[in-house]
Design brief:
The protein is an all-alpha fold and 415 residues long. It has helices spanning 2-32, 35-60, 65-88, 92-121, 127-148, 152-172, 186-220, 231-244, 252-271, 276-304, 308-311, 314-336, 339-383, 388-399, 404-411.
Length: 415
Amino acid sequence: MKKRFTAGVLLAIFTFLFLETEYLFVNIMGTLSNSRQAVSTQGIVLGVSVIGFLLYALFHRIKSAFVKRVVTVMFPLIMAVCLFFLYEADSYAICLFAGFVVFVLLGLFGSALHYHALFYVGRDSHLALLIGVAYALGLLFQFICNNLVRSQMVQLIFVFILFAATVYYLLIRKEAVELEPVDKGEKQKKITGYILVLCVLCMTMIFAALDNAVTLQHAKGSLDVGQWPRLLLAVSGILAGFLFDLKNHRYMSIVMFCVTLLSVLCVLVIVTGGSVLAGLVIFYLSSGFFVVYFTTRFMNYAVQSSIPALWAGMGRAVNNAGAAVVTGGSIALVEGGNVILIFSVVLVLFALISIAMFATERQQGKKKTGDVQALDLGAFAEKYSLTKRETEVLEALLNSDDSAKDLAKQLYISR
């Protein structure tokens, strides 16, 4: 229970810090440029954050504990300097550069928190609900911060303090050293990972278009995304976690498919001049499901991958990369108002999502079959007291179509 609580707190902290920093950055950029530029730069810094998410896998492989500690201690200092420049910046270029560094650090920080959370919970059968509750708590903290603390300087100071405190906490945790990778079926696992990336990337293009349409209204001042409708994200996150965990994630894909369809309808509501508030409500309800979906999928995949430090936070990395790629195009589509063109693009994306989700489910089915076979073999080996080497030979004989001669070479044994 303590480990689940710790994992939930770490994920909630990441949600708050990332979304709050993004919110403050858009507000600051909005004062230095027009609304369109503010949304464009949001997409840019989200893309830059992917560098941080990927860098953590390299950072995690550093063998020297001393080097790791020195580098880690530098992170809060760099963050403090960049947040100061972000607040004091009187030019677009300085603000953008400071934002680059801040979001690279947040990306690296995010991967670290996802990896540590994964270390605590592993193959938890209620992982989706844990992620949903953590996401809801992070959003609730952001809502309270935005509505009770009016000073941007105080908000930035709070972001820094929480960032530095969490970095220090990770620095002193010695037990989260490494997760044991699973070596079996590596080729099949890689295919599953690539299909999952494609699936989430296609979904991101729809959700990012929605996000940009909403953020554009926020930057113009016609609505504030920090107000009460945002709480629907928290509600949808918890609901998504509950539904996704039913029957060991059996209904996860079909639920997400229906939510994606709802998001497609939301795009049409916004671009056809429908109620902005109605579109905002649908957007928040569906976005919560999407975040819980990609976080759960990739954390589950990370447990069985050979590089869990890379894949644990990959869901957010892929989401941010997709958002960065489609930002310019989605803004142009929304502002252009060509409903037929928008509908055609969204329809193509929806078709790609359907194919990718089908492929993902098929790969998951193959994995479950393999897991059952592995369990059966393990039970047999235990019953007849086979050694590890004998079990490897037996598995190769049962599962391989190669000749006895080829198997002998692979296993380094005589025929």
